[in-house]
Amino acid sequence: GWAKSILFNEGAREQFQRFFERGDTLSLGVCNGCQMMSNLRELIPGADLWPRFVRNRSERFEARFSLVEVQDSPSAFFAGMVGSVMPIAVSHGEGRVEVRDAAHLAALQASGLVGLRFVDNRGQVTEQYPANPNGSPDGITAVTTTDGRATIMMPHPERVFRTVANSWHPDNWGEDGAWMRMFRNARVRLG
After folding, report:
1. Is 104 a catalytic residue?
2. pLDDT at position 1, please?
């Protein structure tokens, strides 16, 4: 609904498109914001391959901690985090990546635009429930644009950026959790 209220309102559509085209902005869509931005992909430069996010394969709302691995992508938010395997809060009923067809999935996988994938407790990318809570193909749960300025993701890093919000953490984390880096990266990028 949010996306349609933008796409079908000439003034709102123009304002959002101008914002996304500016070189001095960053955009982050988490959960419902991820769904909204994925449906605005025609307004976002470099988002042509973005999938839609639809009902979980389990047909249920899924809320838990899951593990994700940060992939090598141009995302400004994930700079310097490639290869990190970290716990993250998941809380969604419609988080499964939906692609048009096998060619779309192959293009997305080859594009370098996948930012996060669900992994199992051995750090292996997974489609198996419950490690992959929504059934997304190849564990995909975040994508970015070709220039890395817009990133969308289903899990919630904003819920676990402080150590105290995590159910477990290494003793050396201090006050900031691992996801704080993502938000500091954004601040550095915007200068």
Report:
1. no
2. 77
**Residues in Cβ contact with 182 at an 8 Å cutoff, skipping those fewer than 6 apart:** 77, 78, 81, 157, 161
The answer to whether the pTM exceeds 0.90 is yes
Q: How far apart are CA 129 and CA 38, in angstroms?
A: 24
For the question of residue 156 being annotated catalytic, the response is: yes
Q: Which of 34, 156, 169, 175 is catalytic?
A: 156
C-beta atoms surrounding 177 within 10 Å: 21
Query: Of 94, 98, 127, 158, which one is the catalytic site residue?
Result: 158
Backbone φ and ψ for 93, nearest 5 degrees, come out as -110, -15
Q: How confident is the model at residue 190 (pLDDT cuts 50, 70, 90)?
A: confident
Question: Which residue in the list 31, 62, 69, 92 is annotated as catalytic?
Answer: 31
122 contact partners, CB below 8 Å, separation of at least 6: none
